[in-house]
Amino acid sequence: MSPFFLLSLLFGLAFGQTASLCAPSEYIIHVEKRECAYCLAINTTICAGFCMTRDSNGKKLLLKSALSQNVCTYKEILYQTALIPGCPLHTIPYYSYPVAVSCKCGKCNTDYSDCVHEKVRTNYCTKPQKLCNM
Fold it and tell me: Which CDD domains does the record cross-reference, listed alphabetically (predicted)?
């Protein structure tokens, strides 16, 4: 094999995967309010994917800031609002949710991201479902 081919292959593996595997991904949010008759299924996008990270074996020798792991997180988001059907007049029937426009590998910001993956499935409906395509 030529040295150019090997160098190109290594470069592609090192940088190509990290850039292409953290991206907006389709996701369905299920929203319901106790007072409303329906559960709303909202199609949106979230950031999901793989980010290159390193295991620090010398944890005692490094600063705390050097130990943080990169995650696939929002680079740019916008918010949209949906109307939950079947709500009585005294209830606010609107729900605002984030839509991922672009993503990046970086530190998880708990101001707008859930940085812990829960094993319990909580994204489901207990009432009749309506679909919202935005």
Answer: GHB_like (cd00069)
